[in-house]
Design goal:
By secondary structure, this protein is α+β, with helices and mostly antiparallel strands. It is built from ten helices and ten strands. The chain has two domains: 100 residues, Phosphorylase Kinase, domain 1, CATH 3.30.200; 205 residues, Aminoglycoside 3'-phosphotransferase, Chain: A, domain 2.
Length: 322
């Protein structure tokens, strides 16, 4: 029988635990899979402490891109930003490589951060702090002594790819497809109208959502998941958070808290504030495109669980700007 092609495998967890013991000098390691979306995320417990271990999909990021992600997190941590940095192996390296059936996969062990995601522990104080941290990330990224090998966030391509993948995967919703395609085309025109230098540009987090902020019992907020970090307009990070609170009971209070916190550190220019609805709409389309692009691994049930909500959000935003 011929070997069948594999798009994604799972590492056997006892073997993974043994590998982590050997590479990091830990004792009595146990691995528990938490989630398996863009990265497989494991809770690591051992006699010393708790950690988080990330395993990237094959070909999702290059080795250099993954290394640059954790260099950025390490820089932010050293600068006093509450993030969860990588733990170095005994060799001094960040990354572990695994030869899986589909190809090489990369793993990273990180510090464990206590807390509950912001969506489940919302408060004005936590949201304000989240805004402050994102602004600090933006400000500090301009002071980095080196340029990291991270992707440029091409928002026009993001729109094109999201619409194309939605069309490929959705067969029975022609009206939704037509609306998404039309919205993406109009948003691309609006993007082309932005003038060079009008919006602040540089390294951004790339995925500022409530699930990527942990709130501890004492109110401390830790920002996670820099997998989408790269070079882009800073207003996209702000808009990404604002999209998550639209049509919720405390929308206005949380919007004000986040923006107040952000502008304590980095005031938004008038042009950036005007561009927020545009980037909220872009983020809404990306939020539809991402599960569509990963439907082979995540399944259609996951995709359809989010698509209706994201389409409704897109329609609310575009009614204000199109």
């Amino acid at each position: 029988m011929n070997r069948f092609p594999i798009s994604k495998s799972f590492l056997q967890r006892d073997a993974l635990a043994h590998c982590i013991e050997e590479e990091y000098g830990l004792v009595d390691v146990r691995c528990q899979l938490i989630t398996a979306t863009l990265r497989d995320v494991y809770l690591i417990t051992c006699s010393q402490s708790k950690y988080i271990f990330y395993i990237y999909q094959h070909a999702h990021r290059s080795i250099d891109e993954v290394s640059a992600e954790w260099q950025f997190v390490d820089y932010l941590y050293a600068s006093g930003v509450p993030v969860a940095p990588a733990v170095r192996r005994k060799s001094g390296e960040y990354l572990l490589r695994f030869l899986a059936p589909e190809g090489v996969r990369v793993g990273v062990l990180t510090q464990f951060a206590e807390g509950v995601i912001l969506r489940r522990r919302p408060s004005i104080a936590a949201v304000r702090t989240f805004g402050q941290i994102i602004a600090r990330i933006h400000a500090l990224s301009d002071l980095m002594p080196v340029t990291l090998n991270r992707p440029v966030l091409n928002f026009e391509k993001m729109l094109q790819d999201s619409a194309a993948t939605f069309e490929k995967e959705v067969f029975d919703r022609p009206s939704d497809l037509a609306y998404l395609r039309e919205s993406a085309e109009v948003l691309q025109i609006r993007l082309a109208e932005l003038r060079d230098g009008e919006l602040s540009y540089g390294m951004i987090h790339g995925d500022v959502i409530r699930a990527n902020a942990l709130v501890a019992d004492n109110g401390q907020v830790t920002v996670l998941d820099f997998d989408f970090c790269g070079f882009g307009w800073r207003v996209y990070d702000v808009a990404s958070y604002l999209l998550t609170i639209r049509n919720t009971p405390q929308e206005r209070e949380f919007e004000k808290a986040f923006l107040d916190g952000y502008e304590e550190i980095r005031p938004l220019a008038r042009e950036e504030k005007m561009a927020l609805p545009l980037f909220e709409a872009i983020r809404a389309i990306f939020s539809i495109g991402t599960p569509a692009m990963n439907i082979e691994h995540w399944g259609s049930q996951y995709f359809y669980a989010f698509v209706d909500n994201d389409l409704a959000a897109l329609k609310r935003i575009t009614s204000r700007i199109l």
